[in-house]
Amino acid sequence: MVDRRRGARSAARTDGRKRGLRVAAWTVVAAAALAVGTSGVLAHAGGLSNAAPDRLSVPAWLFLFTGGGVVGASFLLASFVTDREFIEYVHNYARPVSLPRRALTWLGRLVGLGGLLLVVVSGFLGPRAPLESAAILVVWVGWWAGYAMTTYLVGNTWPAVDPFRTLTLPLGSGLRDYPAKLGAWPSVVFLLALVYVEVTSAVADEPRALATLVVAYVAVTAIGVGLFGSATWFERVDPLARIFRLYGAVAPVRRTDDGYRVGLPGTGLREDLLGDTSEVGFVVALVWATTFDGLTSTPLWTDAADLVVPAGVPAHVFYALVLVAGYAVFIGVFYAAAAFSRRTAPTYLTVDSIMMLFAPSLLAIAAAYHLAHYFTYFLGLSPLVVEAAVTPFSGGVANSLVVPGWLQAVPVVSVLLGHVVAIWVAHSIAFETFPSRIQALRSQYAVTVVMILYTMTSLWIVTQPELPTPYV
Amino acid sequence: MTERRAPPDATPATCPHCDAPFPTDRLRDLHVGHSHLADATDRERTAYEDALDADEDDLRMFQYVALAALVLVYFFFLMTYAAVT
Question: What's the Cα-to-Cα distance from B20 to each of A1, A99, A215, A436, B41, rounded to whole Å?
Answer without folding.
Answer: 18, 44, 52, 15, 18
